[in-house]
Here is the input.
Amino acid sequence: MHFLVSALVSFIVLAGSAFAKSSAGDSVLVVLDPSLKKEDYSKFFGGLEDRGYHLTFRSPKDVHPPIAEYDVPKFSHVILFTPETKTYASDITPQSLVGLLSENTNLLITLSTKQTPLSSLSTEFSLIPPPPGTPLISHHPARSEPATVIPVHVPESPLLSADIPPVWFSGVPHALGSSPYLVPVLRAPAESFASDSVDDSGADALFDASQKAGEGLWAGSQLGLVTGFQTLKNSRVVFAGGVELFSDEYANKVLPDGSASGNEKFVKDIVAWAFQETLVLRIDNTTHHRVDELVAPEMYTINDQIVYTTHISAYDPESTSWKPYSGITDMQLEFTMLDPHIRTTLPPVTGQAGKYQIQFRAPDRHGVFKFVVDWRRKGFSFLQTITTVPVVPPRHDQYPRFLSAAWPYYTGAISTSIGFFLFAALWLAGDVKDKKKVVKTE
Here is the structure.
């Protein structure tokens, strides 16, 4: 009976994951600061529920529901809207949040101008926050809003939809470190800077310094406002510099030119990426075999003609299914033993969706080789697969009996043998003489 109950629970969990909007699941824990009202973010939360997510709310100091139980995450995604919180329940620590990422739980984190544990956590992801109390400030374009409420142009990005209008932003920027796993989404305007005062007395000096060093770290478009990070396990985390970005007020607020802001569409796109709805790829299978064969051999022989094939699919959030994907044009295959002996492109096969194939000759080197595909592009799921195969020299009965390059040697050996045979025959024949027998008579 216990086995049947466990099987039924497992089936329900798998079925829920199979029909989830996200490829990682549909359960979301929202940790909401007591200073914030849920009603002020109704468009954001309502949009998530309309897309099939199940939201659970708790305050930072509550212990129920726990984020994880027995080191197993209970939610597929966690949203931290806690800009003012400095103390959390025991299950929310920087270490526990990093542990969630290792278990493929995705995070959406909002920062603030105050020094909080989340500010310290951001440094672990190669973000460099400014000193406390230094929000982003810009006096351009001219507008009635305060200098800390800024319309920001949305750049083109594979994470975002095309032609999103500028978004309203208010909060703290951050500088970007050198980690290759950072995914910049929204940068500060070129004329903006981080300062502890809205007075523009030092703005010119900061702008000039942005072309140099020092204080220029906190000025110009090198500052990030919304930045993603993708781990080696393809879990994702997004850091946003202000929780107001997700508010109804900014979604309804018109831009200085009188047009509607792009906040609602923008936050929908970044959450879709963070929750693994978009740009999610996977390798379904890989095969390899000799030319004119269909089954992978136990080992290859040097100079064999090898065919390597892989099938890749992308997650479609509309149908909640995986579909063949042929949009990668820069994938490479390495055939390596310590160092790559062969590095070649792995192109998509025309007319066969999701199939990538290449044919190459095994190197004239025996040993243990690996087929390696390691494709990493910002914003997309990392694709990696490694298959080990041995490459051996030919067996004794597989070598050719005659080598075309050795015909001069064959000719020399044969001519020498024939000459020796003729010499021996003539020499032996020349020594034979008919001897007459002498008969003695009495």
Remarks:
- The first strand starts at residue 27 and ends at 32.
- Residues 1-19 have pLDDT under 50 and may be disordered.
- The helical segments are 2-18, 42-50, 94-102, 117-123, 203-209, 248-252, 263-274, 407-430.
- Residues 241 and 257 are 24 Å apart (CA to CA).
